[in-house]
């Protein structure tokens, strides 16, 4: 009989321990704003029903969840990959038992619901990482990330969806939490633009110079068939008085005889529509108006030759700071400085993107989504283009924008691109060196 009672007491102690671990997964309460949230997204509240495993002996819990969804890019193009982060912080429910819960027993997963121009759900997952939870203490925050590919142009809404918390403490248990009145309120919106076909329009001149009043033959190709095209002289980024219109043939080609009178004309462009659009135009092609020299004089000329779009980097190895086994946290460092030189002198901007592999090491790997960056970009004085740094956030295997410049009438310059790096290392990652490869692409 004493033996029977002893075994019963042991079972009660075992179930009490399971109850404590499961309680972590039961949380469904109010949350505070996640650190570093962007102004584009907003916290939203919604009712959830969390169902603990039957073995825990805890009834379902209905409560208010506050969450926020953020993205790495809010203006993607169709075909681009968007990284989504679903964050839940400070659940309203607390650990209901007088038993402290250990660190790193919780692995969250969930869904982010898409609406508007594109529907569906994005699967998101979080790392197995949480601080210890004291008896009767509040539950910690957690974040989950995932990606989706934009398939349609327009406004795409993102709302928090169902989530599940898997706990690994004594037993492997799941606690699913569902949205009671789906969909939850919209937390983030991205506006996707259509895919723009490469601009293959081209211009060629029969001569590169001429006296004032001479007609130059301008040959255009690969414009829209049977469309009116404006052919006009350029003085830098401004149009000159030398202008005419012509209609393309059924192949999108034309031959215009443009009379060039303005001595300020230094190039010729052609475009569809009422005004210059780099997506619907071609040029400028250099042209010089030769002013007859007065007697006993000499004409001196100099040419500016278009260059290339290129980049160099200050090194190819980055050493992040170390973290302690059992503590984990952020291993930080800085991207080797990248210098972008845009010496093309045309209308096109550029984009510098990066993607990273998983970090392989003696304990397996640390996911690519655990690497985040904080980009910065500076234009050299006198550069025609302005440089925009990409958004701070995860880099991931899907990639993210580091920096870019917009299209314009005349673009170019020299730019310095940097970024702070932070790798989120789980607390009990096996000691050793973990390495991933960050690949940068300039286009």
Main β sheet profile: 9 strands, antiparallel
Uncertain regions: pLDDT < 50 for 5+ in a row? 1-39
Strand content: over 45%
Report helical residue fraction: under 10%
User: So how many helices?
Assistant: 1
Walk me through what this model shows.
- It comes from Streptomyces venezuelae (strain ATCC 10712 / CBS 650.69 / DSM 40230 / JCM 4526 / NBRC 13096 / PD 04745).
- Keywords: Signal.
- InterPro entries: TAT_signal.
- This is Beta-xylosidase.
- The chain is mostly beta strands and 443 residues long.
- It has 3 domains: 191 residues, Sandwich (Immunoglobulin-like); 88 residues, Immunoglobulin-like (Sandwich), CATH 2.60.40.230; 134 residues, Immunoglobulin-like (Sandwich), CATH 2.60.40.
- It has 1 helix and 30 strands.
- Strands 1, 2, 3, 4, 5, 6, 7, 8 and 9 form a 9-stranded antiparallel beta sheet that branches. Strands 19, 20, 21, 25, 27 and 29 form a 6-stranded antiparallel beta sheet that branches.
- Strand 16 and strand 17 form a beta hairpin.
- The termini are far apart.
- The N terminus is likely disordered.
